[in-house]
Design a protein that fits this description.
Elements (H helix, E strand, L loop, with lengths): L4 H12 L2 E7 L2 E8 L4 E5 L13 H5 L3 E5 L16 H15 L6 E6 L1 H13 L3 E7 L23 H15 L9 H13 L23 E7 L9 H9 L6 E5 L6 H4 L1 H12 L1
Helix pairs in contact: 3-4, 5-6
Length: about 280
């Protein structure tokens, strides 16, 4: 399929504004991108993603923080972990990368989007008081079950490039971005590339209780950001609020009206402002 050279050039440009760190891990290497100076902020992407899930956030946040974003093992440019693929195993590998880039006892803030929120929660439990604030964005792992969505379109043999992009655009609208006018060529390009390079099998982890059962062990302040039209968690926002409020003295639970699941992209300006407010 013809490459979207404009979007590819934009991704390369954004990457060039930071630095790249390659950290040895269990089955090869984990690739991190780093921007800015200041208090460390680690961002974890979602399933079928990479650092580019945060492509509209890294530069605004780098004006205040040292922003560190991995391709988690099995995603993007990082090597796949050994099987079986589990949330705990992935969290252990990410923790080893954090320790290499932010040696103990360095403290930092941590944000995870979707599946990355589950891994962020497990990481926060492992690293205890080193994590100051944990921000969960549209995260799963709260045992809320699978929310019914309309069937995804499928790629068929012989489809023309424009037809293939149409399939990805419509599937983004079904699962990731609520407003059709926010699904631009860059979003489609990122989705195609991220899915193509995903090797970690997340399976039932997003619908599991992986994060729920870890919450009592997290000592960081827990905050969260949600889209009101999130295809996965939108119908369960009050359940999410109740679960995260348990044990929190002053829960900070923000809902972005009209936004879907991929809030760091669809509502980037709002997410950036909320993150800065939560972490200042």
């Amino acid at each position: 399929m013809r490459v979207d050279t404009t979007s590819a050039a934009f991704v390369s440009h954004m990457e060039s504004l930071g630095t790249r760190a390659v950290i040895p891990c269990e089955a090869g290497a984990m690739v991190w991108r780093i921007w800015g100076e200041g208090p460390p902020l680690v961002l974890l992407h979602g399933a079928s993603g990479s650092w580019t899930h945060w492509i509209r956030n890294v530069q605004p946040l780098a004006a205040r923080f040292r922003v560190l974003v991995p391709d988690m093992p099995g995603y993007g440019d990082s090597d796949a972990p050994l099987e079986p693929h589990t949330a705990d195993g992935l969290a252990d590998l990410v923790a080893s990368g954090v320790d290499a880039l932010l040696p103990p006892p360095t403290s930092f803030d941590l944000a995870g989007f979707s599946f990355g929120g589950i891994i962020a929660g497990l990481l926060a439990a492992r690293l205890s008081l080193r994590v100051r604030t944990l921000v969960l964005l549209g995260t799963g792992g709260l045992a809320l079950g699978r929310t019914p969505t309309r069937p995804l379109l499928r790629i068929r043999s012989g489809m023309a490039p424009d037809e293939i992009r149409h399939v990805y655009r419509e599937n983004l609208r079904t699962l990731m971005i609520a407003s059709a006018d926010k699904i631009d060529d860059l979003a489609v390009f990122l989705q195609i590339e991220n899915l193509r390079r995903t090797r970690f099998r997340s399976g039932g982890i997003p619908e599991s209780d992986s994060l729920l059962k870890t919450l009592p062990a997290i000592q960081a302040r827990i905050t969260s950001i949600w889209g009101s039209r999130d295809a996965f968690t939108g119908p369960h926002l009050e359940d999410c609020r109740r679960i995260l409020a348990s044990g929190q003295r002053d829960p900070d639970f923000r809902v972005i009206e009209g936004a879907g699941h991929w809030t760091p992209y669809e509502a980037a300006d709002q997410v950036n402002a909320i993150l800065i407010d939560m972490l200042r």
